[in-house]
Prior knowledge:
By secondary structure, this protein is of the alpha+beta class. The protein has a single domain (5-77), classed as Aspartate Aminotransferase, domain 2. 23% of the residues lie in helices and 17% in strands. The protein is built from two helices and three strands. The chain has helices spanning 5-14, 68-77, and strands at 20-23, 44-49, 62-66. Strands 1-2-3 form a three-stranded mixed sheet. It is flat and about 35 Å long.
Amino acid sequence: MTVPLHQIEQILRTNPDSLVVVDEAYVDFGGKSAMPLIGKYENLLVVRTFSKSRCLAGGRLGYAFACPEVIADLEKIKYSTTTSAA
């Protein structure tokens, strides 16, 4: 499901105390990215993957974009979860 950017902005504006996560796994196949909104909203986290358009599904590699404060918070917890090759 694609959510228009104006609706994402509305969600961001009306929920300033909540982190809004936008999954852009398929953005390379069409659609508009929420990346331009990162500088405007501190509660936005955009996540992407190498799995889809980069043909690396087995790698389970992803990355995230957000304001520096959100990234710093993610850095604090990044080793608190486990991953499995199974």
